[in-house]
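Hello, quick one for you while I still have it in my head. Could you read through the record and tell me how the tokens relate to the sequence? No rush at all, and the record is pasted right below.
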Amino acid sequence: MVNVIIADDELPAVEELAFLLGKDARIGTIHRASSGAEALRALEQHSVDALFLDIHMPSLSGLDIARVISRFTRPPAIVFVTADEDRALEAFELRAVDYLLKPVRTERLAESVRRVCELMEGSTAAPEVITVDQGGVSRMIRRDDVRYVQAQGDYARLHTSEASYLIRIPLNDLERQWAEAGFLRTHRSYLVAMDQVRKVRIGAGRASLFVGDAELPVSRRHLPDVREKLEATRLRPSH
């Protein structure tokens, strides 16, 4: 069970997040804090695995708390929950496990809890982070948030559950660089994170993968690689 502290100077935000986390079977005790100082006191008094921190709080901000915690021998996981899209770089430099934007969606929160659990099990490293430019602003996104990549000439468009981002890297280059991270070329125009595939349709000379709400084509050329990948992950009965 994951014991957590929620810190936000807006009480409704604390209660909403506590309600959502309380529905997750992996979450144990939930401690509430309405300031950074209160969050640090709760951390001293209780055994905590993760903190869900708002960035903008009076006196001690969420980033200030993360800096304090980074000096701990065994720091708890940090998840930032904020309406501020522009502080992700600082957040990931402080080794945040995740960066959630308000209003928080249940599906996205569950992914954050999964990442906290992985960290507790010691099965995850620091996230690979990509810098993207959007409207003249540089943003940071995690590579494991990318569901699939779409070729657009000499550019590639990264699709996450929340948005898409154009980067100036050809799809062929990403195919080589991201192969070890589980991305597979499925079509001349698509590179797919195979652990994000929720359904496969193969038949009548046509194949496609369902990733999130998108149906992505699989070309005949790449179908053998897709079949091989799917076969490698298929569960088989033990003998």
Notes: The longest helix spans residues 106-120. The chain has a mean pLDDT of 89. DSSP finds seven helices and 15 strands in the chain. The first strand starts at residue 2 and ends at 7.
